[in-house]
Amino acid sequence: MLPSFLSPVSVYGLYLRRCFTAAGLSSYTLDVDHETTVHFWAPTNRTVQKPAVVLIHGFGPAAIWQWRLQVQFLAPHFNVYVPDLIFFGGSSSTSSERSETFQAASVGKLLDKLKVEKFQVVGTSYGGMVAYNLAKMFGEERVEKVVIASSGVNMKRSNNVALVQRAELEKIEDLMLPATPQQLRKLMSVSVYKTPQFLPHFLLNDFLHVISLFLQTIFFCFPTNNTDRLIKIIALFKTFLRFVETIQRESEGEKGASERINHRKR
User: Fold this and answer.
1) How far apart, in whole angstroms, are the C-alpha atoms of residue 135 and residue 123?
2) Long-range CB contacts (within 8 A, 24+) of 176-184
3) CATH value at residue 62
4) Distance between CA 226 and CA 238 in Å, rounded?
């Protein structure tokens, strides 16, 4: 296991925090009731003239892993609020509740505490279900617009069966809960259209270590059926792929810039 200062995943997390800060957001923690504490990102200096938008992340690591590009684009035009859902990132609760309704109620309490009267909400994957429930609770009087993206509402058990057969395994858990770099590569081989070319073992190991607590959350904090678990695991895996793709894009961008400079010199 790599120490945190050598961990690529941890270092990338620091980079994401820097991106949020550069967009004018600050990190806060607030007790929304006697049981629940929510960590969230919000404007360092709220502008009254700007509308409010709430970004609700999917199942996976903290919210900063999923909203970097959106925050950078939206912050000049909106007061952006990005909460960590309960049991993700820095949010926690002693409540026994685990439903999307509970998550929505917690976000709603946070917005009440912050005196955000009207807002627009965007939810992706698992967060889309939370956004739906939040809009249902607050109604048109407070929720102006709702955007739900990539929520697996149509997923069926037969999808699991087909995927397991394709991977030549016995159980969906054997595929979707990788514990070693080899198992993670197996998962990628059957679930990714274009597998990243360069993925060293140490990077896969580091990612598996960092997300191990989230994988435990899937089974112990969300005791649902296999279909629900799979939806959440896939969302987590997509987060990892976004991380890898970001590294590749930035690496290719630097390579392209270097080639252009060398071409000019010639």
Assistant:
1) 11
2) 176/229, 176/230, 176/233, 176/234, 176/237, 177/215, 177/233, 178/208, 179/208, 180/208, 181/205, 181/208, 184/208
3) 3.40.50.1820
4) 18
Q: Distance between CA 251 and CA 249 in Å, rounded?
A: 5
Q: How far apart are CA 133 and CA 103, in angstroms?
A: 9
Sign of CA dihedral 57, 245, 230, 60: negative
Provide the pLDDT confidence category of residue 247 given band limits of 50, 70 and 90.
Answer: very low
Hey, what long-range contacts does 166-172 have (CB within 8 A, 24 or more apart)? 166/190, 172/226, 172/230
pLDDT digits (tens, 9 = 90+) for 149-169: 988 666 677 877 887 888 888
Last residue of a domain, one of 86, 121, 149: 149
Tokens encoding 225: 């059926």
pTM (2 decimals)? 0.70
Of 149, 180, 215, the one marking the end of a domain is 149
Q: Tokens for 104?
A: 């929505």
Per the structure, the complete domain to which residue 205 belongs is given by 157-265
> Pairing between strand 25-31 and 36-43?
antiparallel
Per this entry, what is the length of the chain?
A: 266
* Joined tokens for residue 133: 């429930």
Residues whose CB is less than 8 angstroms from the CB of residue 232 and which lie 6 or more positions away in sequence, other chains included: 59, 126, 218, 222
Same domain, yes or no, for 131 and 163?
no
Q: Is 170 left (phi over 0), alpha (psi -120 to 50) or beta?
A: alpha
Residues 12, 119 within the same domain = yes
